[in-house]
Amino acid sequence: MTNRAHTANPDGPVLVVTNERDFAADVVVARLQASGYPVERLNTETDLQVVWRPDEPPLAARYSAVWLRQFLADPTPQDSVNDVDDFLVTREQWRTWLTDLAEHAPTRWMNPLWSARRAENKLIQLRTAVSVGLRVPATIVTNSRDEAAAHQAKVGRSIVKALASAFFPFSDSGFMFTRPLDEALALDATNWTQQPVIVQAAIHPRTDIRIFIIGTDFAAAARTEVDAVDWRTRSGEAEWERCEPPEDILERCRNYLSAFDLVYGAFDFAFDGDTWWFLECNQAGEFAFADRPLELGVAEAITTWLCGGPR
């Protein structure tokens, strides 16, 4: 018997796969419990003993829906490149174990695991955004300091982002925030050859906008902070407000999610007063920071979908 011979359990609970510090998941789990809908939560920190056998049903077989949020351990400060490498290797073991969830196709996924992983690839994100008609700032991916400098000379002030995980000269963890390109250009050229990074024209000044798409529903919030390179590093200095994106932008966002077979996406745009510039889409993007104070209804929409609402 293969895994695909196992049938779905339409009366089973919803499985939320995340961590103890996921406040967004807290809200959705509480809503599910309040509605009387059965829900189970699997946290990274749970004392989980794994015993897997190839002849047993996949983990997802007992659930009616799965919401894979943030199960993998968060990046934490490390003392050296080797320590960061050890952390990422350990996380990859759990990442591989989670794939057993995906071996049960009939279960409803908020975002199917393999689709979600493909959507995490920033190269595919940018190419897909272009294909659905979204505007992307002038971008190159390179491990050449000279090419990066030439790009900035051509398009103007630029920024640098990690292609995946971290760029250790800028971060002592497995994660890196967006940085001004000039900081990276100050590094020795050997720091560049180790790995490719994203070099992109900076949108300045700008309004940062996050659009949440949940199936057919949407919500959006905006904040303006002229000097911020990455709003996540200065979260207390500007207030988020509700906003109404143009219908054509929403339609392109929905087409983007359809291209990946996703239900949920948190889109980041930079608006310069004329153009909505696509920066990225996080298939597990945070929403509680704006949803709760602005009453956007994101948690409600996710809860409805997990309970069997519109796909």
TrEMBL record:
What's one GO MF term for it? Answer: ribosomal S6-glutamic acid ligase activity
Source species, domain of life:
Bacteria
GO process annotations (BP):
SOS response
Q: Name one GO cellular component term.
A: cytoplasm
Q: Protein name, please?
A: ATP-grasp ribosomal peptide maturase
Lineage runs: Bacteria, Bacillati, Actinomycetota, Actinomycetes, Propionibacteriales
